[in-house]
Design a protein that fits this description.
Alpha-Beta Plaits; MutS, DNA mismatch repair protein, domain I; DNA polymerase, domain 1; alpha+beta; 12 strands; 358 residues
Length: 358
């Protein structure tokens, strides 16, 4: 049986929900994320709509920069950006609704994140039938939720994911197995999952900018440059990916983080925030149906953006807030004195994460 995989990605998901629910936000540049506080805000953009992206505002853009880009556009006579706070419970409810729609049509799916999922369409037995089915899925999502999705169809997860981003918003791109290498060849290297800024810079130093530029490299060359990742890339640039769909992906970690409105070393302020982060992590632990954890990780970002993480793995699993609170406080204390913070730098962000879940 021919293998056919679809990747469905909701278009500007958080922003699209806010536009749907608030008519005044339609047709204007929109950012969902931290409060910009007139350019003094902390944190980042969670999602921007396509009008805001035209200003250079994308996911993970610092909210202060998003504000400056908005003000520059406003001074140039263009519409200012509307900023909206994140409402994760609402987005999670809509996500559940969308995944329910997808499962009406596709029996085997792997939810990759809150706004994207893979589906195994091999049962359709042809790319033509798979395309027709995905058009039905897209239409059902739009009818039921008034939101749009973009879909990529290919012989594996790699090709399907890249294809879903080719004609956003509301797109559908089909790449058959025999077309995969030709489809990838003209794309920039960053289009390949696993090639981030550092790897891109390393390859660029060798004169490699596009996928086609790497086709002449041997496995040995890529292994020498990048180790095991190089061997993996040798397969990916040829459109090959054997990774299975994991219908029930196991949760490997749970975490929460907070960016302070003003950098601080006030111990009471830090302790209070750790308490809130710990409660948030425990709430998510219950929602995910996880029974216990063994590893606690504290992340600290200083005012100069230097980020450090410290972890502790307990001999026995725990499942209560008191244990999490105690262990994460132990990890924080060295950051309040010379052990981890010899220059008394102020703290910008705290994060708490748990791993080794069961």
């Amino acid at each position: 049986m021919v293998r056919i995989i679809a990747h469905l990605d909701m278009d500007a998901f958080f922003a699209a929900i806010e536009e749907r629910d608030t008519p005044a936000l339609r047709g204007v540049p929109l950012v969902v994320g931290a409060d910009p506080l007139g350019g003094r805000g902390r944190g980042v953009v969670s999602t921007s709509n396509y009008l805001a992206r035209a200003y250079g505002i994308h996911s993970a853009t610092p909210i202060s920069i998003a504000w400056r880009l908005s003000e520059a556009a406003r001074r140039a006579g263009r519409p200012a950006v509307a900023f909206v706070s994140v409402d994760m419970p609402k987005y999670a409810r809509v996500s559940d609704e969308i995944m329910g729609i997808v499962r009406r049509f596709i029996p085997v799916v792997e939810q990759a994140s809150i706004d994207e999922t893979y589906g195994d369409l091999s049962f359709t037995e042809s790319y033509g039938a798979a395309e027709l089915l995905c058009r039905e899925v897209k239409a059902a999502i739009h009818t039921d939720t008034r939101l749009t999705a973009s879909v990529g169809i290919g012989p594996n997860k790699l090709i399907a994911k890249i294809a879903s981003g080719m004609s956003k918003p509301d797109g559908l791109t089909v790449v058959r197995e025999e077309e995969a290498e030709l489809f990838l060849a003209p794309l920039p290297l960053r289009a390949i999952p696993g090639i981030g800024p550092k790897t891109e810079a390393l390859l660029s130093q060798q004169g490699l900018k596009y996928v086609r530029d790497m086709k002449s490299l041997t496995v040995s060359q890529l292994d020498a440059w990048l180790g095991k990742r190089g061997v993996d890339l040798y397969e990916k640039i040829r459109g090959r990916d054997a990774s299975p769909l994991e219908e029930y992906a196991e949760t490997k970690s749970l975490g929460e983080q907070h960016t302070f409105e003003a950098d601080t070393l006030d111990s009471q302020r830090l302790f209070s925030e750790l308490e809130l982060l710990g409660k948030g992590v425990m709430d998510r632990l219950q929602q995910e149906g996880v029974q216990s954890f063994r590893t606690i990780i504290l992340t600290v970002r200083f005012a100069d953006f230097k980020t450090t993480s410290r972890a502790h793995t307990m001999a026995e699993p725990a499942s209560d807030l008191a244990t999490l609170r105690r262990e994460v406080l132990k990890l924080l204390m060295p950051f309040l004195d010379r052990r981890e913070n010899p220059h008394r730098q102020l703290i910008r962000l705290l994060g708490v994460r748990i791993e080794k879940l069961s």
